Amino acid sequence: MKPILPGSPWLIAHRSMLGINKPYKFTLNGQDYVLWQNREGEISTLENVCPHMQAPLSNGWICEASNSIQCPFHALEFDGEGRLVKDGKAKGEPIAKKLNLVVQGDFIWTYGGYEPRLPIPDLISERSQGLRFLGVVGCTSIPAAFLNSIKINYDFNHQNGVHREIFRIRENPVESFEPNGFEARVVQTFLRERNSFNEILKNPSLLTLPQKIKNELEYSFPSTTLFKAQLPIGEILQFFILYPESEHQTRTFVLCYGSLHSPLFHIPGFRNAWERSLLSSIAKVVEQDSGAVASLYPPQKPKIRLPKEEILFYVEKLYHEW
């Protein structure tokens, strides 16, 4: 396939998504890779195909002693450079293809083998500093092209439709939009109706949501969208991550952070229940967005325009002029 946005930095995983000495498969721009992490935190990645008979290396296992991966077919062993390992030692030149990574703390980035055209953004590391990491949710493949998938993060007219079921949003005015090259900032307000008692019982995190929520969004094209909500109990940060798996498949996940303070958290078990409920709600948002994008018919020229759609034109322009 023709690569999508070659030279972009892609965040392919957070360290918490990896086990220890467990193969982790991912796909980027039509190519499958296998990634693994050893007990010392060293991370390696190879193309997922064994150079012998093309078995998927991700179906194999990690040899801890030599920090190598073994093919599930004939137990051939390869180190993180792609060299064949025999008797615990790597020998000869690499024969399995390595993918270069940029590991910054818990964040695992790659340019997918292309010459970098943008620096790795510092949006996540800067904005999350001093906040508690709550977890990763919404790891899913969207059966849609990358442009369609990214546009929903810039669509400020969809929340009172796609997400009305959970949050009862009736209006979502955008107060400001500040584009700055490949970065942008938006200030928006959610005006909500009250959730029912039964809805709150099913989703305790709704108990702490006011009817008016001030949100800030920051963008680092093309991979990262920060959604920051100021609530009475504190600050919630959600980093929505995207990367292209193939021409018609896009991978997404959400990194969640918070600075939370409430007398309710002194109730035994309430904090844990609330955080589980919050993460479940965010996962539901991803599910709703993914379903909305995947259900779209082929694009046609719009016969209706909604407010603030210039933000959509902004991201389309960045994509098409890449």
Task: Explain the overall architecture.
The protein is of the alpha+beta class. The protein folds into two domains: 10-110, Rieske Iron-sulfur Protein (3-layer Sandwich); 123-320, Naphthalene 1,2-dioxygenase Alpha Subunit, Chain A, domain 1 (Alpha-Beta Complex). Helix content is 19%, strand content 36%. It has seven helices and 19 strands. It has helices at residues 123-127, 146-151, 159-162, 164-167, 197-202, 270-294, 310-320, and strands at 10-14, 24-28, 31-37, 43-47, 61-63, 68-70, 77-79, 84-86, 89-91, 102-104, 107-110, 132-142, 169-171, 174-180, 183-192, 212-220, 224-231, 234-246, 249-260. The strands form five sheets. Strands 12, 13, 14, 15, 16, 17, 18 and 19 form an eight-stranded antiparallel sheet that branches. It has a three-stranded antiparallel sheet with strand order 1-11-10, with no helix packed on it. A three-stranded antiparallel sheet has the order 2-3-4, with no helix packed on it. The longest helix is centred in the last third of the chain and has 25 residues, at 270-294. The mean pLDDT is 92.
Q: How many discrete domains?
A: 2
Quote the distance from N terminus to C terminus: 17 Å
Main beta-sheet annotation: 8 strands, antiparallel
CATH architectural category of the largest domain: Alpha-Beta Complex
Beta-strand content: 35-45%
| Element order: H for helix, E for strand | EEEEEEEEEEEHEHHHEEEHEEEEHH
Query: What is the CATH class designation of the largest domain?
Result: Alpha Beta
Backbone shape: globular
Q: Which class of secondary structure composition applies to the elements?
A: alpha+beta
Looking at CATH, the homologous superfamily of the largest domain is Naphthalene 1,2-dioxygenase Alpha Subunit, Chain A, domain 1
Please name the CATH topology of the largest domain: Naphthalene 1,2-dioxygenase Alpha Subunit, Chain A, domain 1
Q: How many helical stretches?
A: 7
Please tally the β strands and state the result: 19
Low-confidence stretches: none
- Helical fraction: 10-25%
Radius of gyration: 22 Å
Q: Provide mean pLDDT, rounded.
A: 92
